[in-house]
Amino acid sequence: MTTIKNLFDELPPDRRRRLTDVAVEVSLPRATRLFEEGRRADRFWIIRSGQVYLDQHVPGRRAAIVETLGRDELLGWSWLFPPYLWHLGAETVGPVEAVEFDARAVRDLCESDPVLGRAVYRYVAKTVADRLHGTRTRLLDLYGPQGSGLDP
Predict the structure, then answer these.
(1) In this structure, what CATH number is given to the domain that contains residue 41?
(2) Residue 56 is assigned to a structural domain of this protein
(3) H/E stretch holding 80
(4) Domain ranges, residue 87
(5) Phi/psi class of residue 31: alpha, beta or left (left: φ > 0; alpha: ψ in -120 to 50)?
(6) Top-confidence residue, 57 or 2
(7) Which has the least CB within 10 A, 35, 42, 103, 149?
(8) How many domains does one find in the chain?
(9) What is the rounded CA–CA span in Å between residue 116 and residue 52?
(10) How far apart are CA 4 and CA 34, in angstroms?
(11) Three-class secondary structure of residue 122 per DSSP
């Protein structure tokens, strides 16, 4: 397993400062609903402590939890891609400490600073690719004839 790096670890120090200028430290109580599938994605978070469930709407049933995110993980990537709508919902499992970013401010920084923009896009793309890989592995475990072949 690779070491988890957060967005700040991926940036050169001078670009890191530009990003932290638009960041806000937040404390979120247990069971805080952060966003809903299909609604406007106007912010994102780097989780410092605690956990957040990602869930998907299932008609006629409770939302299905599809992933749990924790320390140093990116919460939200829909803010970076038009039409800027959440693909999932999210709720805190317990108390969460996080760094919150205004999506428009970060998109503007990415447009005005190609080095920062490239680093942010790479980080988000890697995050999405890693989660897609994890999802495929879970699907193989559930539905594949012999599972994924990976030990839990």
Answers:
(1) 2.60.120.10
(2) yes
(3) none
(4) 13-141
(5) left
(6) 57
(7) 149
(8) 1
(9) 27
(10) 23
(11) helix
Contact 52, 92 (CB under 8 A): yes
Residue 113 in any domain: the answer is yes
Q: Residue 60 has what DSSP assignment? A: T
Q: Domain for residue 21, yes or no?
A: yes
CB atoms within 10 A of CB 123: 19
For the chain, give the mean pLDDT: 90
- Please indicate, yes or no, if residue 2 is contained in any of the structural domains: no
The reported pTM is: 0.86
pLDDT value at 1 more than 50? no
Distance CA 139, CA 144 (A): 7
Cα 64 to Cα 30, 111, 118, 148: the distances in Å are 18, 35, 33, 22
- Distance CA(39)–CA(67), nearest Å, equals 19
